[in-house]
Write a structure and sequence with these properties.
The structure holds two protein chains of two kinds.
Chain A (H helix, E strand, L loop, with lengths): L25 H7 L4 E6 L3 E10 L5 E15 L6 E15 L4 E5 L6
Antiparallel strand pairs in A: 1-2, 1-5, 2-3, 3-4
Chain B lengths: L23 H8 L3 H6 L4 E6 L4 E9 L5 E9 L7 E8 L4 E5 L6 H20 L15
Antiparallel strand pairs in B: 1-2, 1-5, 2-3, 3-4
Classes of the chains: A mainly beta, B alpha+beta.
């Protein structure tokens, strides 16, 4: 069962998945990705890859089996070479506050 | 901005787990967003990661519609601190939150539904005063 918290009605009961499957607004594209693995780009050079369990109009999201990647750039003092480092960690279930989200996409495929 | 400063932007008062905020505006905001999940998590121990790279691990005492949190018995590490401090009481402004870790044992769907039911119960309680209670929305036609 899917739980959709609608922003345009005073819901007094949990609404089931709406019968319309047409994409009407950008958030509907995210609705298509429910229960799928997604890629989320966040502010401060962070990326998340996880299974989308829930979202709302602010893009607050609940992700399961998440891998967070933090990318940092170090500049060598002498050669001024840019060294990109990424740190990863895994979290089983995560609530993400929407104002940190930049974009949501299907997981990137190599090649 | 230091996230631990007390900000008076919301009217939520301290409430134990299970109690719903008495402000109509906050109830409407909560029932239409995922903040309801965090409100259902009141009473549980979680880790909250902050926007400024710090984190706080403790028991969620109260969450309001703006995601402002109060926590008890907290292990807190600020972004520029190399060590953690133990705090009895901590207030975090909603804006400063980046992530909230959800405990493994928690059923997300059930928690949200329970919280929505609590909000619904508060609303119908107001209506049951023989019509003298304040109506929050048009009655549903059956």
């Amino acid at each position: 069962m899917r739980l959709i918290l609608c922003s345009n009605s005073m819901a007094d009961e949990v609404e089931q998945q709406p019968s319309t499957n047409t994409v009407e607004e950008p958030l509907d594209l995210i609705r298509l990705s429910l229960d799928e693995r997604i890629y989320v780009k966040m502010r401060n050079d962070r990326e998340l890859r996880g299974r989308l369990h829930a979202y709302d109009q602010h893009l607050n999201m609940i992700l399961g089996d998440v891998e967070e990647t933090v990318t940092t750039v170090e500049i060598d003092d002498e050669t001024y070479e840019e060294l990109y480092k990424s740190t990863k960690r895994n979290i089983p279930m995560l609530f993400v506050r929407g104002d940190g989200v930049v974009l949501v996409a299907p997981p990137l495929r190599v090649g | 901005m230091d996230p631990v400063d007390v900000q008076g932007q919301s009217q939520s008062s301290s409430q134990s787990q299970g109690e719903v905020c008495s402000s109509l505006r906050e109830r409407s905001i909560s029932e239409n967003s995922l903040v309801a999940l965090l409100q259902g998590m009141q009473g549980h121990v979680t880790t909250v990661e902050l926007r400024d790279e710090g984190w706080a691990q403790g028991r969620l005492q109260n969450v309001d519609a703006f995601m402002n949190l109060r926590m008890r018995d907290v292990l807190y590490r600020g972004h520029n601190m190399g060590h953690t401090s133990k705090l009895q009481d901590l207030f975090i402004t909603g804006r400063n939150i980046r992530f909230v870790h959800i405990p493994d044992h928690m059923d997300v769907l059930q928690t949200i539904q329970t919280q929505l039911q609590r909000i619904h119960r508060v609303r119908t309680f107001n209506r049951e005063g023989g019509g003298g209670g304040r109506r929050e929305y048009c009655p549903k036609k059956k």
